[in-house]
């Protein structure tokens, strides 16, 4: 009986020491475990197209968790093709070799106004097939370093598809969790979009206008929810994060200047198991003046409050989300020392009992 009591006392002491140590736990930074991007885009190439291509760098097909496709658009699910340093995700029409024609095509739109998601996918109604607008997207387990979008057009003599026109000017955000400088402060979730680099190293790229809406929900968001007319996607005036902002690549000799990357940050307060931050980016043509020497946009008043005549056609919208999980608390170094000291003490007691 006395031996059992000794074992019980040693176990109780170990538990007490460990529990005392755990009181020194520090809250761990949340984990970004997935990013999602769904976007609406008009066919602005001037002729019908037969597919769409997403080029991702810094990831492979193994990093793509799911894609928007199936019965949701005319092209079905995309095909993935890895290359050195990245992956192509291609939506493409079927080809009838006997008839010598592509079976699916995105027509030229009759107008290009903000879609609000109703006409760019099969669930948006009968107007989708003739709208000239499509909705594509995918989920990633890690950030792509670069993303490019292109329309594809088919050659009826070969049945092959190739890129047509310039890259579609809809930026995809890169999400990061930035530890705070002050350990007491919450971490910051950062979303960064960058315009396509300027072709001339001494001149600015083409300018766009961008509007941003944002919201948060206390759960994981699914890719299929990132449609413009879905309730989880922010679009109300009260959810406006940026009313208007000029978006333009700076030349190499002026990197870091105004209008280059758009970086949006928000402190992340404590939350339960899961949380999602959702943003809707809207892109519009810039019709204002440019500097004749370096092609920098010269806004009429300022580049946060455009005149109506400076805003051109709607280009498209990017619905993006970051899914976050609360990480388990991490014991402070002093906690580990307390636990190890407790274990050492128990070992010492045990050895003395045996001696």
Automatic annotation (TrEMBL):
InterPro entries: Ice-binding_C (IPR013424). It comes from Methyloversatilis universalis (strain ATCC BAA-1314 / DSM 25237 / JCM 13912 / CCUG 52030 / FAM5). Residues 1-28 form the signal peptide. The keyword Signal applies. Residues 329-353 form the Ice-binding protein C-terminal domain. It holds the Pfam family PEP-CTERM. This is Ice-binding protein C-terminal domain-containing protein. The lineage of its organism: Bacteria, Pseudomonadati, Pseudomonadota, Betaproteobacteria, Nitrosomonadales. It comes from the Bacteria. NCBIfam families: PEP_CTERM. Keywords: Signal. Transmembrane segments: none annotated.
């Amino acid at each position: 009986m006395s031996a059992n009591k000794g074992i019980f006392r040693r176990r109780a002491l170990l538990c007490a020491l460990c529990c005392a140590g755990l009181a020194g736990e520090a809250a761990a930074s949340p984990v970004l475990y997935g990013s999602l991007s769904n976007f609406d885009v008009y066919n602005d190439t001037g002729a019908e197209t037969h597919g769409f291509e997403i080029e991702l760098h810094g990831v492979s097909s193994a990093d793509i968790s799911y894609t928007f496709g199936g019965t949701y658009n005319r092209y079905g699910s995309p095909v993935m093709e890895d290359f050195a340093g990245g992956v192509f995700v291609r939506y493409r029409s079927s080809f009838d070799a006997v008839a010598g024609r592509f079976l699916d095509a995105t027509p030229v739109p009759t107008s290009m106004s903000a879609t609000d998601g109703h006409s760019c996918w099969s669930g948006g109604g009968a107007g989708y097939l003739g709208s000239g607008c499509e909705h594509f997207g995918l989920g990633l387990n890690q950030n792509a370093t670069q993303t490019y979008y292109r329309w594809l057009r088919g050659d009826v003599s070969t049945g092959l598809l190739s890129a047509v026109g310039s890259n579609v000017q809809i930026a995809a955000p890169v999400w990061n969790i930035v530890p705070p400088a002050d350990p007491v402060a919450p971490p910051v979730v950062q979303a960064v979009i960058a315009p396509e680099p300027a072709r001339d190293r001494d001149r600015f790229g083409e300018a766009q206008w961008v509007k941003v809406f944002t919201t948060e929900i206390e759960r994981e968001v699914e890719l299929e929810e990132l449609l413009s007319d879905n309730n989880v996607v922010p679009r109300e005036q009260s959810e406006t994060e940026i009313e208007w902002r000029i978006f333009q690549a700076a030349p190499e000799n002026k990197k870091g200047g105004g209008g280059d990357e758009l970086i949006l940050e928000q402190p992340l307060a404590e939350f339960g198991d899961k949380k999602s931050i959702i943003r809707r980016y809207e892109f519009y043509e810039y019709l204002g003046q440019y500097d004749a020497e370096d092609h920098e946009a010269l806004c009429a008043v300022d580049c946060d409050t455009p005149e109506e005549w400076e805003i051109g056609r709607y280009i498209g919208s990017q619905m993006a989300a970051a899914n976050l999980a609360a990480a388990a608390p991490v014991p402070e170094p002093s906690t580990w020392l307390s636990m190890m000291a407790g274990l050492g003490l128990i070992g010492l007691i045990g050895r003395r009992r045996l001696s």
